[in-house]
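Recap for those who missed Tuesday's class. We walked through two folding examples back to back. For each one, the amino acid string is listed first and its predicted structure tokens come directly after. Nothing is annotated here on purpose, so try labeling regions yourself before you check the end of the notes.
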Amino acid sequence: MGLILVSNRGPVSYRRGDSGELETVRGGGGLVTALLGVAASRPVTWIASAMTPEDTEVWRRAAGGSIALEHDEYRLSLRFINAGAQAYERYYNVIANPLIWFIQHYLWGLAVAPEIGEREISAWDEGYVAVNRLFADAVCRELEDGNGEGGRPLVMLHDYHLYLCPALVRERHPQVFLHQFIHIPWPQPDSWLVLPRRMRQAIMNGALANDIIAFHTGKYVRNFLLSCEELPGVEVDQERGVVMTGGREVWVRAYPVSIDGDDFDRLAGSAAVLEEEGKIKAARRGQLILRVDRMDLSKNIVRGFKAYDIFLEKHPEFRERVTFLALMQPSREDIREYGEYRRRIAEVVEAVNNRHGTADWRPIDLRMQDDFPCSVAAYKQFDALLVNAIFDGMNLIAKEAGLVNTRDGVLILSENTGVHEELGEFALTVNPFDLEDQARAIHQALTMDDDAKRRRAGKIKQVVRKNDINRWIERQFDDIKLKGGGES
């Protein structure tokens, strides 16, 4: 059975090398790694947006058709959709981010934002709807080319960019098996009332066109089922995790994503990581607090620094004995709210460093960079890792860092992260809005006795290795097979 994967970003993108020739660049992140593993066992077509001018050139050369990617480890064809700059801007930077992203992470301050006017209505129709239709057209062309011969065709879609695509595909190919994984939180039903009725109805109808819709946690499954009861008002079996609609059963399931432990071990021992680790060891003084994040409002970066400020005020004995290393990857800076948030981060760091710092000690070492070897090196060396997100679909940093840390470092974890369902028992749980709570947790982490630290760190490693990326994939394909989606 052929498999069609669909996501906004693809497994590779293209750039022009020094020689002027087009070069293939593998996409980053655990999702690409996991899904490329699926491609090792079956033929896969991956449909994604053309993100760069070079991607568009490749799309044009292929006349919108599939591009074979040759690799020893997988069999993969890539098919780009090309929305054009204006439609993509409306689809991505007006509707998907920030409008839907903010709803699903509870980020809107509803007294003043959002304001849905002509710009947003136009962006929905001419951006989000239009681009989802392009994705659906590409899926249908692949199905009509015979991708699914030899079994019921399987299409696996990923994330909130593509809520409308399943219904558009189902309309033309009723027998296709559709599976969609939502990698961000699904909020409580009232959150969706921010959107005009036709928008939220289209999102729910699109999601319910799937055979299986998947999330990272049981909490998001429950929220989705409640949304189905309250928004479209369809029949729901909470106990079985099933929605009955249009004469079909939609299964709603939780599969917590993870990482490849062996692959991460190899990375942690690589020359690039070891070089960065040496620099961190040489620069450290006493204990190291760490955070590694995209510079996203949902990550709660400013409150984390303010909590550290409170910690230093209450425990001056730690001055010049601890450093807060913050590795921040710039994100979505063409969206106004993100540019403003970056400025707020810089301002609070400057204030903390001016208030507590000395001539040769900066309490916060803020680095705005995208340097994965440096991040992994820091994972190995932290004494306390702060993950205080407002809401997070999963947060793989807690798993990655917990797996390779060598100092029995303590995880400080927001109760609103998806990963809290798996690791909360072995972390110091904090309320992401309570600065005093986070300041107390920092002190507790840095003063915890060695036996308690060792026990917590060992349990985290055990959970991450047991519930690895392969188990995440296997559980999904087991359910697909059980529901009649073909061989796993």
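Example two. Treat it independently of the first, because the proteins are unrelated.
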Amino acid sequence: MKSNELIEIFAARCPVCVMVRSTLENILSDERLDKIFEEAATRQYCRELTFSTCVQLMMMVVARIRPSVNAAYKSAAAEIAVSVNSVYNKLKGIEPAVSERLVRDTAADLAAVIDQMGACVEGPLSGREVRILDGNHLAGTEHRIQELRQLGAAALPGQTIPILDPQRRLIEDVIVWEDGHSSERALLGQVLPRVKSKQCWIGDRAYCTKMFLFGIAKRNAHFVIRQHAQLQGELIGRRSKAGRCDSGMVYEQKLRIRGEGTEELIVRRITIERDKPTKDGETEIHILTNLPGTVTALKVAEAYRHRWTIETAFQDVTTTLRCEINTLGYPDAALFGFSIALLLYNVLSVVQAALRDSQTETRTIERNVSMYAIADEISGVWRGMEIAVPSEVWTEVYAGLTAKQLVSKLRSLARKANLALYTTHKWSPKRPQPKRISGNRGNHVATQRILNKRKPH
């Protein structure tokens, strides 16, 4: 049987897996990956082991197709001319600039695909380009490095600030930092160059610094950022009532923030008096924005609530993919693995967009396409696809497609998918836990004896 015929069989039985493979082949050619490395790396260089090989190995681990880097290496050892130790040495030296460039460049390609598809969704502020940012400290790793073996404390391999484009549901960019103990505020100087005119940036109070707010305003951009207690200003005029949102009453008042010298910034302070305190016991939340008055206080409050969109993305990256590989203790290797997870998250977002776009008869559930269900199928089917169809065949069929041609392929495949297999269950509030009557947790009971006491219906 010819390879193209085998691809058609997979397309009929597992179209979503073929969608993922075709998208990866299109944006991750070996030549493209190695060019990214050559342009961004300053310390490392490629000889027998190429950067594209490292990406492919790490992708197998992050997508849960292989359980470890060593297992991924063994599965491809015949095509790799170096030892597994050389692979680990390469991974621990991949520079942050390379990881950032990989996410940024591939996200730009995938954004073009979504735009070509016309599959953008409504953002937090209608008609405005929004970016949401939040920090993420990578979890502690195993103490495999010699210097860590006598330490009881968790070994933190680094931290990141991903930047989410909520209209396209893509992680547009990321800032990675090897010092896992440093504050997010130490990285704000790297965020500002990424701010573009007329964008609106949404963040929590960790990003509420004068340098950041003034920097955004100077770039003719806007912000919706929760006020930090350390940033004080001068309230101007009376506070006016704006109405109610889901969590409480909303008020608005102007605030003057003084910078260096005679520099000052007058912003709108949106206050939400909460019906219920936050988990930290706070009854009021203050949000600062320089958006014009045409954007009402209620819209600003609602836009800030969309900040949790990036938390959902973090959850998908953590639970659906394997973004924190605890066996990779060296910071650069761990950060590279996290960046690969962001890349795969973006690819799965494109697949979700194609499913939403093509399944026109099920528009009512367009927001409930499960990334977990897609990733689960990929991890189960991918090895069979690798055995049945040689890599060069996938490359030949999909690598050279334009964005328009790729969209056509994705739509054709999406129409073959049974969307019911990939939709989430409708959310409903959790039932309160019943009061325990069994005494100490250390005791035990026989389940069958309990069931024997059940009254018949």
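Answers for example two:
Residues 362-366 have pLDDT under 50 and may be disordered.
The longest strand covers residues 234-245.
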